[in-house]
Predict the structure.
Amino acid sequence: MTKTRIIETNQGIQGELNVTVYDQMMKRLRDKGWMETSQIIKSGIDKGLALEVGPGPGYLGLEWLKKTSNTQLMALDVSPDMIQLAEKNAQEYGLYQRVSYVLGNALSMPFEDEMYDAVFSSGSLHEWEEPQKVFNEINRVLKPGGLYFIGDLRRDMNLLLRWFLIWSTKPKEIIPGLITSIQASYTLKEIIDILQESQLQPTSVKKDPIGLSVIGRKVK
């Protein structure tokens, strides 16, 4: 039986120690090739101006920029500490001219209607206070025909896979945060139910051994 969802945080990751440890984990995922960059590109998000929701230290979006041509990225994060780190990482990538980081809450995005060719996010869905409202905001800022990809963990992953994921995670200081993220993540059914009440249609919701993805195109 799947355990009841436990809300984690709506403030993002803040504080020098937390940010440093999280950065180390995400850098390792990048170096191992375990980020969702290829899935995002395979979904058709490979051109134009994209919005990333919850970029954290920025590696996912920076890898996306690195692997695509003639693209620009705007990234929205609720944590000022993460934005500062992401800006530093963008400088190191040499991609600072193609990306801008904005402080704000995805519940009320500080962007104009129909501004983006695509929206993507990985690992932040479980932190959204009201995911239905965020889905509505994604729909609002997308151009007609724009694509979206939202990936995250899922709470009902196999118990053995869950423990393997925890055991293999480094640095070990991040493990308590990983556990609370899993506990705050959604099941496939929960996300389908939320999406059905949102304006973000049509949508394909898929699951893999440890996570789920929400993929679609805004109606023209």
Observations:
- The first strand starts at residue 48 and ends at 53.
- The mean pLDDT is 94.
- Strands lie at 48-53, 71-77, 99-103, 116-122, 142-153, 203-207, 211-217.
- The helical segments are 16-32, 37-42, 59-67, 80-93, 131-141, 159-168, 175-184, 188-196.
